[in-house]
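Structure (tokenized):
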């Protein structure tokens, strides 16, 4: 069977997008594993299905490269909105996209050709209670707490943006772009403090409204960007006193920049959504 797809990315966080308005995918988890293998298949951080919704303009289902289904993807939802608009599945602006973490509203910014260039998403309120992240910390919040990982103690802030995140701020002289994130990230991902595994952000403070970040995503490994992780990072930076609530913060990632504002009640994310190519594959 021939399957048509669209390869899209937000700041290099790339997924294979499949239009499910006119077809169904029987086993999306296995398909994600098969198609996500870099060098041996299409190659991506995972597969995202763009489906009809009874309550919104479209529904998004995302599967990581290991086949596990994620509840939310910040870069992915911007690309879903672009997919829906550019392919004429809905003329609305803003759009509402249903996810496992609730329905999100996305405002679209169009280029001169009428296609989506950037999108702004209200990501909702961060989840701070450890039991709801879920994470095994005492108290009402897990902010700047010590956690021993692989024999080394880190100060971490844990929260959820629809999926669990663990944010750690590194020293100014730390080699953020050169350290072996795989060996450390895997230990964080499978740490017993996080019963559903965890995404981990390693963050360097540049100024009160500028950060640098690398991310290890559960189920995918290091990615060039992570929308929910970037949101979690700015919330953590505000909670730890590095950034101010209400300020627009620029976060530099391997794949580009995202712009995050934490209002104290909700998190607003702005960033690009790009189509890399269209293709088909026999499955």
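Design, position by position:
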């Amino acid at each position: 069977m021939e399957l048509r797809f669209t390869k899209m990315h937000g700041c290099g966080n790339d997924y294979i997008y499949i239009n499910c308005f006119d077809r169904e995918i029987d086993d999306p988890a296995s398909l994600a594993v098969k198609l996500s293998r870099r060098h041996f298949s299409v190659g991506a951080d995972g597969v995202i299905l763009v489906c009809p919704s009874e309550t919104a303009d479209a529904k998004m289902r995302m599967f990581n490269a290991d086949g596990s289904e994620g509840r939310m993807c910040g870069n992915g939802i911007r690309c879903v909105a672009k997919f829906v608009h550019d392919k004429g599945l809905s003329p609305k602006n803003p759009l509402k996209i249903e996810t496992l973490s609730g329905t999100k509203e996305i405002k679209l910014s169009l280029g001169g050709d009428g296609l989506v260039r950037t999108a702004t998403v209200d990501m909702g309120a961060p989840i701070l209670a450890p039991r709801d992240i879920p994470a095994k910390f005492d108290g009402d919040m897990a902010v700047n707490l010590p956690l021993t990982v692989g024999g080394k103690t880190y100060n971490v802030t844990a929260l959820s943006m629809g999926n669990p995140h663990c944010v750690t701020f590194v020293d100014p002289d730390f080699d953020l772009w050169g350290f072996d994130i795989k060996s450390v990230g895997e230990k964080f991902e499978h740490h017993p403090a996080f019963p559903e595994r965890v995404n981990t952000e390693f963050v360097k403070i540049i100024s009160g409204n500028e950060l640098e970040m690398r991310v290890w995503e559960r189920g995918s490994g290091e990615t060039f960007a992570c929308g929910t992780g970037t949101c979690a990072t700015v919330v953590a930076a505000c909670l730890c006193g590095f950034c101010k609530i209400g300020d627009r913060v620029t976060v530099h990632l391997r794949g580009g920049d995202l712009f995050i504002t934490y209002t104290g009640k909700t998190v607003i994310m702005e960033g690009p959504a790009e189509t890399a190519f269209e293709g088909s594959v026999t499955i």
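Reviewer-requested clarification: The helical segments are 28-36, 74-86, 181-189, 227-239. Residues 189 and 197 are 5 Å apart (CA to CA).
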